[in-house]
Amino acid sequence: MLTREHRCGRSEEQELEPWPSPKKARSGRCLRNGFKWKMEEPEEPADSGQSLIPVYIYSPEYVSMCDSLAKIPKRASMVHSLIEAYALHKQMRIVKPKVASMEEMATFHTDAYLQHLQKVSQEGDDDHPDSIEYGLGYDCPATEGIFDYAAAVGGATITAAQCLIDGMCKVAINWSGGWHHAKKDEASGFCYLNDAVLGILRLRRKFERILYVDLDLHHGDGVEDAFSFTSKVMTVSLHKFSPGFFPGTGDVSDVGLGKGRYYSVNVPIQDGIQDEKYYQIFESVLKEVYQAFNPKAVVLQLGADTIAGDPMCSFNMTPVGIGKCLKYILQWQLATLILGGGGYNLANTARCWTYLTGVILGKTLSSEIPDHEFFTAYGPDYVLEITPSCRPDRNEPHRIQQILNYIKAQQLQLAASLPANLSNFCQGSEMPTTSRPALDVKGGTSPAKEVIFAILQIRQGKTNFPGSWARPS
């Protein structure tokens, strides 16, 4: 397990001066190069508009069940223990999750898949001849008890959604949920059950339009696929998109199908992105989406594998950057279901979700990690902050702007707010309908022209976003 991010191929010990002992760190005298660590950004209360305190889905049995997943052993305990160490649990309403019934899981997953998963789970049979058909194998081994784990996670997210439906809270949290890759008849990417889809389906009992926002490193393909034909659920995913990177979907031109056309929004991002640029992209996209879709409830997946130091070695984010995105969603004052997701540096994942819990509560957390069961896992610094590495940012500003222009055109089309005369909208300029706008003298095109070009492409059904725009050369 990584304890801190790699820096330019050198180990952390080669760059930093010796760290104090855990005893000194506990006393609050933990210094780095002579200066006490401080939060990168002072916390301000998140305006979630909640007159009711948030619901926190938790029980010892649920945490123990989630700890059993081999890919993230003890992660659930680490997350809860750090939240508890900061006494954040005392400021939330703790709700014990129910276990999902077969009928509840079958609102999305097929009976055949669920029955097979239950069978191999009881037998601990990872070599069943039919398992490959159901995606059980390399990244989703059919281990003993895996069905019970899936039912527990699915039930926890359904419980959180029901709390929102019942008006018990405005924000409900299930940090052990967010498994967004599972399909209706197939496990995928460490995901055996798509609890995010189950939560959305439960919310649809009350809320007419649900917005799903996925900030995991990986494309939320399972959720997008589940709702690709409907206009009642809009999915937005910001993720790494690169040849050979799992799951290989989520290009900007993937916009949904049938009645769900334009209700899928994908933002492909390259390695090395940091907080400021990520938030600029997020805010630009979500502003357009909110105006076009007018959601009545939100499901927010906050996978922590985007954080610097994650073994995925891709994005270069910190919890502060993700926290700004979370605040942006909360200021809408809608019923909001918060889920976890990826995150394979276990200590950093606990840091991230604890910090985000503080954001939800509007609390500033101490820099020093409080003494608790997993305290030694946070060495050698024993602080809450995560520092970005010097990983280069592969996201070129012009390429990002082209992607954002395309998404803006998509949302304008969705909102049916296009001007009747596109040439007038472009201030009299002649716009070609079959080729990309010509470069200006500075080697670029105006954002307005790029938007109009994208609109015309969408209207003509030419939604294959040019590869040179979305992918590195």
UniProtKB/TrEMBL annotation:
One of its GO terms (molecular function) is metal ion binding. Keywords: Chromatin regulator, Chromosome, Cytoplasm, Hydrolase, Metal-binding, Nucleus, Repressor, Transcription, Transcription regulation. It is found in: Chromosome; Cytoplasm; Nucleus. It catalyses: N(6)-acetyl-L-lysyl-[protein] + H2O = L-lysyl-[protein] + acetate; N(6)-(2E)-butenoyl-L-lysyl-[protein] + H2O = (2E)-2-butenoate + L-lysyl-[protein]; N(6)-acetyl-L-lysyl-[histone] + H2O = L-lysyl-[histone] + acetate. GO terms for cellular component: chromosome; cytoplasm; nucleus. Its EC number is 3.5.1.98. It holds the Pfam family Hist_deacetyl. Residues 1-27 are annotated as: Disordered. Residues 73-358 form the Histone deacetylase domain. CDD domains: HDAC8. InterPro entries: HDAC_I/II (IPR003084), HDACs (IPR000286), His_deacetylse_dom (IPR023801), His_deacetylse_dom_sf (IPR037138), Ureohydrolase_dom_sf (IPR023696). Belongs to the histone deacetylase family. HD Type 1 subfamily. This is Histone deacetylase 8. It comes from Macaca fascicularis (Crab-eating macaque). The lineage of its organism: Eukaryota, Metazoa, Chordata, Craniata, Vertebrata.
